[in-house]
Amino acid sequence: MALPSSLYGALISVGISVLIFAVGILIGKALGWAITNLLEKVGMDEWLEKFAIGRAIAKSGYKPSDFFGKITAWLVYATATVLALYSTTMFLNIFAASDILKTILVVYIGGFAKAFVIIVIGFLLVDAFIGYLYKSSDTVEEAEFLGPIAEYLRVLLYIVTVVFAIEQGGIQVSFLSNMLTPIMWGITAVMVIVILSKSLSKHFKAGNDEEGEEEKKS
User: Fold this and answer.
1) What sign does the dihedral 49-52-54-58 (CA atoms) show?
2) Contacts of 135 (CB under 8 A, 6+ apart)
3) Which spans are transmembrane here (predicted)?
């Protein structure tokens, strides 16, 4: 007995969706493995540990190479899953679901991938800049005074990088910018207090040292 054409087409659609998903899983595993091994061979783990982002990844229990390999694999898995569902909904003429899946693929998965790359590169540049600031201090006192300023700049630039990355990923973050404004002002106020307290303590310490030297001379 021949199958109805609609049922036959549905089976073909399901088969194509399963094939897309299976191929996506295989590609994801292969890419994840390739990226992990490539980063290990080029010494990415040791290099990234010089930066704050690399140390943060290491504290999470992953080597940077494993972390980036897993992120790549899961992005491919998610893409394959959405594409498989999209194929099925298109065949079934469920256009509302197809539009939602297309949005998920382009805006959220694609946007996450773009934002992730921008954040990683941005954080590395920020860490390199902050490291340069620390190295530019000639004395221990300068390093102690520069420390809070450098860390303030690090946090501020991290926030700017994340907001920029999310915007470039295609997600509107005007509400996030409004929410972060008072936080950034709060961090700035704390930073000013820390700088003033350090300056005053250094001033009083210098004054006490001078008084002590005068007493010794007298």
Assistant:
1) positive
2) none
3) 6-27, 74-96, 108-134, 155-173, 179-196
Q: Using CB atoms within 10 A of its CB, is residue 96 exposed (0-12), middle (13-18) or buried (19+)?
A: exposed
Encode 173-187: b = buried (16+ Cβ within 10 Å), e = exposed.
beeeeeebeeeeeeb
Integer Rg of the chain from CA: 27
Report the predicted TM-score, pTM, of the whole model to 2 decimal places. Answer: 0.72
**Calpha distance 179→191 (Å, rounded):** 19
* Longest Cα separation, the chain: 117
DSSP states along the chain: -PPPHHHHHHHHHHHHHHHHHHHHHHHHHHHHHHHHHHHHHTTHHHHHTTSHHHHHHHHTT--HHHHHHHHHHHHHHHHHHHHHHHHHHHHTT-HHHHHHHHHIIIIIIHHHHHHHHHHHHHHHHHHHHHHHHHHH--SHHHHHHHHHHHHHHHHHHHHHHHHHHHHHTT---HHHHHHHHHHHHHHHHHHHHHHHHHHHHHHHHHHHHHHHHHHHH-
pLDDT tens-digit map of 60-108: 888 889 999 999 999 999 999 999 999 888 887 888 888 999 988 988 8
Interatomic CA distance for residues 123 and 133, integer angstroms: 15
Residues 6+ apart with CB under 8 A from 35: 65, 68, 69, 72
**Do the beta carbons of residue 67 and residue 44 sit within 8 Å?**
no
